[in-house]
Amino acid sequence: MMKAQEFFGLALVPALLAALSGTMGASTSLSTGAATPAFAYEVTGEESVLHDPVRAGPLGRAPLLPGSFSLSDGLCPPLPPPTGNVVTVSSEAALRNQAYNAATGTLIMIEAGVYNMQDFVHVVNDGITLRGATGNRGDVILDFGGMESGHFGILVDADDVTIADLTIRNTHDHGVSIQGCDRPKLYNLHIQDTGDQLVKVNPHVNGIDGSEDGLLACSRLEYTTSAPDSYTNGISAHRAHNWVVRDNQWYRIRTIDDTPAPTILFWSQSSGTIVERNLLVDCYQGISFGNASHNYIDHTGGIVRNNFIYTSSSSTNDVAIEMVHAQDWLVAHNTVFLLGSPPGLTWGIEARYGDSRGTFAYNLTNKNIWHNRDGAQGTLMGNVTNAQFSWFVDAASGDLHLVTTATDAIDQAASLADVPDDYDGDARPIGPAPDVGADEYGVPPPTAVTNLRVTAAITHTGTLTATLGWTAPADAVTITLRYNDTLITQANWTSAPLLTDALPGSAETYTATVPYDGSTVYFALKSQNAAGDWSNLSNNAFWPHWDVFLPLVTKGR
Ligand SMILES: [Ca+2]
Ligand SMILES: [Ca+2]
Ligand SMILES: [Ca+2]
């Protein structure tokens, strides 16, 4: 353990070492049973014991919550069909064998089933993909609970490795461990009830070369009740750079005794982390850049945006977002609603220590934001800190979408270039201005039609009868059509003669009779959603060149 402590720059005083001993004991099996260099940078205990000891007294376990609302398909599309060098496995031994021995670039498809794993899965060649064969992560379950050797679930010692569409559960130590490898992609996973961290990211054994450009997305990570001991995180990443953690759901990420342990923790000189559109429910701590146990700049850059963080009154929580020894961050448009704070914990978001600086902007919370704790240089911009339960669709299920009466949040922000969308991936703003918090209230305007065309035309003396066709946009309630003798643009839209403003949003054809002198006639449309928000302008269709439409140009029909 001394090696790890030295690497992370800890100067542990004897009293703290004594305090740590109990927690460190839990990891003894790591160093004795698996004395390989891959494990040399495990850090056990420091992040929990040395952190600010704000905590509740008795355990208050949250009831199991249902799966809540679903994520947007647009943000979490299925992976493309398998191509290239594909092998299929249907036994745990074959899975481990292929993971370790398959050639660089092999895609390993794992057939549906529950796999009673007998050892950890070790990936050592670049470009390996481990993927559940059905695309449904619940169909392919790697259960490590009966394992007789090894400690991890999946250990990644190679670059460009993808792990997707499967479940990892009941590991002795970490669920997935990344060893300084670059561009790992963890996608559509369900990671559950691990002994230590659900996902761990370490540098290579040289302690310098960290993991670059990783992705953890569209996954569900949870404990059924809590970690089995005092040591866990949802993801703990040392020396990780430019990772993206997005569109995940995290439930009950907490130690057994509420020892502080962030759910999403990037530290040990990590940088450029993006944490967005995550849902955290009944986790003891939330998102942390840096940690109080380090006394150097622990994180640089990065953005925390559009996350929902909720703790019920039957659970307990520490701070939900903390920037500690962290520089040049943006924490913006998060919704943090905490009902499990112990007496005295009046804040839920903080920046701490004089070397921390960054901006808290347009966050929506029911707790204070402590922007200058211990001399931190956090700045505040437009945050709302008196959120009420009634402002949300279904806070008790973690659904912190706004309701129409949340007028203290709706349209109360100014646009931030770094926050162009919201929790749902909808472009901001909807309505006159962005909303405070992670949800932009309302339905986005319909997308612009791009395939308006003249499908038939008949000319008479002085008139043209043209049949128009298009694909109806989603969320359109009414469609307005106009024509003109010049190209219709956003600027001249309202002055172009009206054909109709009363078509239903589902309409996909319209027959227009317009004046005709032999020159070109142009047609275009816009649609409106239920709130009356306009789409952008469609392409122009025109006659007599009825076989050509913009911007999709087809010829030779
Ligand atoms: Ca690396
Ligand atoms: Ca708005
Ligand atoms: Ca929204």
Structure notes:
The chain has 557 residues and is mainly beta. Among the domains are: 14-53 and 104-302 and 320-330 and 344-389, Pectate Lyase C-like, CATH 2.160.20; 453-543, Immunoglobulin-like. The chain contains five helices and 41 strands. The protein has a 22-stranded parallel sheet that branches. A ten-stranded parallel sheet has the order 4-7-9-11-14-17-21-25-28-31. A four-stranded antiparallel sheet has the order 38-37-40-41, with no helix packed on it. It is globular. The site of one calcium ion (CA) has 5 residues, from loops.
Class based on secondary structure composition and strand pairing: mainly beta
Number of strands: 41
General form? globular
Helical segment count: 5
CATH class of the domain at 14-53 and 104-302 and 320-330 and 344-389: Mainly Beta
Bound molecules: calcium ion
Beta fraction: 25-35%
Major sheet summary line: 22 strands, parallel
Terminal CA distance reads 73 Å
Nearest-integer average pLDDT? 86
Range of helix content: under 10%
CATH topology-level fold name of the domain at 14-53 and 104-302 and 320-330 and 344-389: Pectate Lyase C-like
Low-confidence stretches: 1-72, 546-557
CA radius of gyration is 27 Å
What CATH architecture of the domain at 14-53 and 104-302 and 320-330 and 344-389 do you see? 3 Solenoid
